[in-house]
């Protein structure tokens, strides 16, 4: 069966591992380059994007991971993970890099101090069965959406908070902590489609 990796250098990777397992997906924590081998998808968790960026470089995961993403490996990023998948950032920390891939500009800590953290029920395109209870924790939003990217959900004020571009999925919020696994199931379906396609092309 396909194995989905969860980048496990910092952040709430355990919650993502559990959510994937609950969807029947074989999931593997990734801390070393060798653990990237043979993956059919990767999740980049919530946490602190500057720390994940730094540790990914320190552990020499950045270059191989970037190569896999460039080659079309399906990836899902929640919150800090969304930041890491963005091509462009507003309010990046000095020296902060992203892996990129998503043709969007993401604003870090966008919701500001007043609404540091909040929850909202949002309709998410591609997720059936009613709104998703979305938990935002010092969350980013998508400030600009490039031509290739599709907005799947908006915050109550109308900011894009879930986007998809081909094999890449990102949410400002954290479905890994609510017990509602529909977003992970959407990603698992993207991974399944990719596995089928690469098999067919072989
Ligand atoms: N504010 C964090 C950052 O910039 C993201 C917060 C989160 O992942 N919950 O990385």
Automatic annotation (TrEMBL):
Entry's EC annotation: 4.3.3.6, 3.5.1.2
Gene3D superfamilies (UniProt xref): 3.40.50.880
InterPro entries: Class_I_gatase-like (IPR029062), PdxT/SNO (IPR002161), PdxT/SNO_CS (IPR021196)
Superkingdom of origin: Bacteria
Pfam families registered for this protein in UniProt: SNO
Functional pathway: Cofactor biosynthesis; pyridoxal 5'-phosphate biosynthesis
Catalytic site: 79, 174, 176
UniProt GO MF annotations: glutaminase activity; pyridoxal 5'-phosphate synthase (glutamine hydrolysing) activity
Catalysed reaction equations from the record: L-glutamine + H2O = L-glutamate + NH4(+); aldehydo-D-ribose 5-phosphate + D-glyceraldehyde 3-phosphate + L-glutamine = pyridoxal 5'-phosphate + L-glutamate + phosphate + 3 H2O + H(+)
The keyword Lipoprotein is annotated on this UniProt entry: no
Key word Hydrolase present: yes
Residue positions binding L-glutamine: 47-49, 108, 137-138
Keywords, in A-Z order: Glutamine amidotransferase, Hydrolase, Lyase, Pyridoxal phosphate
PROSITE patterns membership: GATASE_COBBQ (PS51274), GATASE_TYPE_1 (PS51273), PDXT_SNO_1 (PS01236), PDXT_SNO_2 (PS51130)
NCBIfam families xref list: PLP_synth_Pdx2
Classification via PANTHER family: PYRIDOXAL 5'-PHOSPHATE SYNTHASE SUBUNIT SNO, PYRIDOXAL 5'-PHOSPHATE SYNTHASE SUBUNIT SNO1-RELATED
Functional description taken from the UniProt entry: Catalyzes the hydrolysis of glutamine to glutamate and ammonia as part of the biosynthesis of pyridoxal 5'-phosphate. The resulting ammonia molecule is channeled to the active site of PdxS.
HAMAP family: PdxT (MF_01615)
Quaternary structure note: In the presence of PdxS, forms a dodecamer of heterodimers. Only shows activity in the heterodimer.
Family to which the UniProt record says this protein belongs: Belongs to the glutaminase PdxT/SNO family.
Protein name: Pyridoxal 5'-phosphate synthase subunit PdxT
Organism annotation: Kineosporia corallincola
């Amino acid at each position: 069966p396909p194995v989905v990796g969860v980048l496990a250098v910092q952040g709430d990777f355990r919650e993502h591992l559990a959510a994937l397992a609950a969807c029947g997906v074989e999931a593997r924590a990734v801390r070393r380059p060798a653990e990237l081998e043979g993956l059919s998808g990767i999740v980049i968790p919530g946490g602190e994007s500057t720390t994940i960026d730094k540790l990914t470089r320190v552990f020499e995961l950045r270059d191989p991971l970037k190569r896999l993403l460039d080659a079309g490996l399906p990836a899902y990023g929640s919150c800090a993970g969304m930041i890491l998948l963005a091509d462009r950032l507003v309010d990046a920390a000095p020296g902060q890099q992203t892996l990129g891939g998503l043709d969007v500009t993401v604003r870090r800590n966008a919701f500001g101090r007043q609404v540091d953290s909040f929850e909202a029920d949002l309709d998410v395109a591609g997720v059936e069965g009613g709104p998703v209870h979305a938990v935002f924790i010092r969350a980013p939003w998508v400030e600009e959406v490039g031509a290739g990217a599709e907005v799947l959900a908006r915050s109550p004020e109308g900011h894009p908070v879930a986007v998809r571009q081909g094999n890449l999925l990102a949410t400002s919020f954290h479905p890994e902590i609510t017990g509602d696994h529909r977003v992970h199931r959407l990603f698992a379906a993207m991974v399944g489609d990719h596995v089928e396609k690469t098999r067919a092309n072989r």
